[in-house]
Design goal:
The chain is α+β, with helices and mostly antiparallel strands. Helices cover 54% and strands 19% of the residues. The protein has eleven helices and eleven strands.
Length: 336
């Protein structure tokens, strides 16, 4: 009797365990919606930027997902440039250089955000892992906007200063300074990136984008109304006067041969600072350039070139003026 009761008890116990465990063994793994072709079900496009990556390991899948996010931003920014035609051209930069700068802005911007990842998923019969990388748009905007805001404020401050100038030449230089500041900060690309990341927030910077797009036309309009004559007190083969004239030409300002009719007069005063030493003749030349309109100075510039020399006095002088002209080319009328 005891042996039969034991068998009954064992059977009941086994049955209970079987019933209790049935759901555990019978249930199928639930595929995440983002891994089952329904990415927006978990990550709505208005609130998230998300991408799925695959790999033979969880780490490889996460890296692939990150790469997909980067491609999304790159393609979206490029599409915005082509569609809106509002990207500001960067004078003196090739298309390749422009593309590299934009890619740098995109990459550095994405790195600002804490990109998050889902738990890796791998089905029972799947050969690869899947991971979803995602960015919360609103959260990322809180991180990104301060950088954009600072760049926009620097540009708009310089732009406003240029607009308030009564003198045409000063206004032209002011717009040049604003343009240079925007280029250094990558403002145009930051705004384009903002439109991809958080469109509603980016609209706050539309006025800065419009002003930036109009700067080249504003500068051309001002340059067309300027003309200047260059008067150089001392030169060697005309290299200093040529460097000064070329600097005006880069701004689109016409350089005339005589003072008649010129709105501005540019005087170039060179001090050679010549030394005769046992080793030869040496110069530490300096220059002071003054732009005058209606008897009043509107712009001044001064620089000292590095000391140079040679045993032959003529060669030493040529080298000195060459060094001075190079310094003028590098820094005269260059936007600060």
């Amino acid at each position: 009797m005891k042996r039969q009761s034991y068998k009954v008890f064992s059977f009941l116990a086994a049955f209970v365990l079987l019933v209790a465990g049935a759901p555990l063994f019978a249930a199928k793994q639930r595929v995440p919606r983002w891994a089952d072709g329904a990415l927006e079900a978990d990550f709505p496009r208005d609130s998230y930027i998300a991408a799925v990556g695959y790999g033979t390991s969880a780490e490889e899948a996460a890296a692939a997902a990150d790469a997909e996010l980067g491609r999304y931003f790159s393609q979206s920014v490029e599409t915005s440039v082509q569609a809106e035609q509002v990207a500001v051209s960067v004078s003196g930069m090739t298309t390749d250089e422009r593309s590299i700068r934009r890619q740098t802005v995109i990459t550095s911007s994405v790195e600002l955000f804490a990109v998050r990842h889902t738990e890796p998923w791998r089905g029972q019969k799947a050969a690869q892992y899947a991971v979803c990388a995602y960015i919360d748009r609103a959260e990322a905007w809180q991180t990104f906007e301060p950088k954009l805001k600072e760049a926009a404020q620097r540009f708009t401050a310089l732009h406003g200063e240029a607009r308030r100038q009564e003198d045409v030449f000063r206004s032209l230089l002011g717009y040049g300074a604003a343009k240079a500041c925007a280029e250094r900060d990558g403002l145009s690309d930051l705004i384009l990136f903002a439109h991809v990341l958080f469109p509603s927030g980016a609209r706050q910077y539309q006025s800065a984008q419009d002003m930036l797009a109009s700067v080249p036309a504003d500068m051309k309009r001002l340059a067309d109304s300027c003309s200047v004559v260059v008067e150089c007190t001392s030169d060697c083969g005309g290299v200093v006067a040529s460097a000064v004239a070329a600097s005006f030409a880069r701004l689109g300002i016409a350089v005339s041969g005589g003072s008649g009719g010129a709105g501005y007069v540019c005087t170039v005063d060179v001090v050679e600072n010549r030394q005769e030493l046992p080793a030869g003749t040496f110069y530490t030349p300096s220059v002071r350039i003054t732009v005058v309109s209606k008897g009043a100075s509107v712009h001044t510039y001064s620089r000292t070139a590095a000391k140079t020399g040679a045993r032959n006095a003529d060669v030493a002088r040529q080298r000195a003026y060459g060094a001075l002209s190079q310094e003028i080319t590098r820094s005269f009328l260059q936007e600060r």
